[in-house]
Amino acid sequence: MKREEKGAIIEELTGKFQTIPFFYITEAKGMTVAETNDLRRMCFERGIEYKVVKNSFIKKALEAHEADFTPLNETVLHGQSAVMFHPENQKAPAQLIKEFRRTNDKLQLKAASIDASLFIGADQLDTLMALKNKQELIGEIIGLLQSPAKNVISALQGGGNKLAGILKTLSEREEA
């Protein structure tokens, strides 16, 4: 591979690491061609980009990022590595890995980065699936903030109806 080709791969990876706030690094050691094709097909169907890349290219691409990814260099970036990107859904790669592992345990999660927070090790897969994205968190906060206001409004409306009923009953008694 020529220096220009290597530079193009590193530049492409750098751009993805800077524009997509989450990525997964996996290892698929020992998979057959058919198993790899099944994995790639699943990735394509779900809009996940799956790239097998040299560890040195990943290291160089991450160096350009403002976040500190040195723990990946020390513990994760050795052996065979592949990177998974999904432009919108941070859980999609984790869901795919979990589903694929039901039939093939050769695919391993090495690490993931969600908004520059690192999750290292295959045991982090359930944690990654449980994480809420930004929209889900905002929705929960809005729901929590609206809840007390809704209670106050319903109490005022309910109390107003009771007060009106009491006044009507009192006025009917006076007329009688």
Automatic annotation (TrEMBL):
It comes from Spirosoma montaniterrae. CDD domains: Ribosomal_L10 (cd05797). It comes from the Bacteria. Belongs to the universal ribosomal protein uL10 family. This is Large ribosomal subunit protein uL10. GO terms for molecular function: large ribosomal subunit rRNA binding. Gene3D superfamilies: 3.30.70.1730, 6.10.250.290. Forms part of the ribosomal stalk, playing a central role in the interaction of the ribosome with GTP-bound translation factors. Pfam families: Ribosomal_L10 (PF00466). SUPFAM superfamilies: Ribosomal protein L10-like. Keywords: Ribonucleoprotein, Ribosomal protein, RNA-binding, rRNA-binding. Part of the ribosomal stalk of the 50S ribosomal subunit. The N-terminus interacts with L11 and the large rRNA to form the base of the stalk. The C-terminus forms an elongated spine to which L12 dimers bind in a sequential fashion forming a multimeric L10(L12)X complex. GO terms for biological process: translation. The keyword DNA damage does not apply. The keyword ATP-binding does not apply. GO terms for cellular component: ribonucleoprotein complex; ribosome.
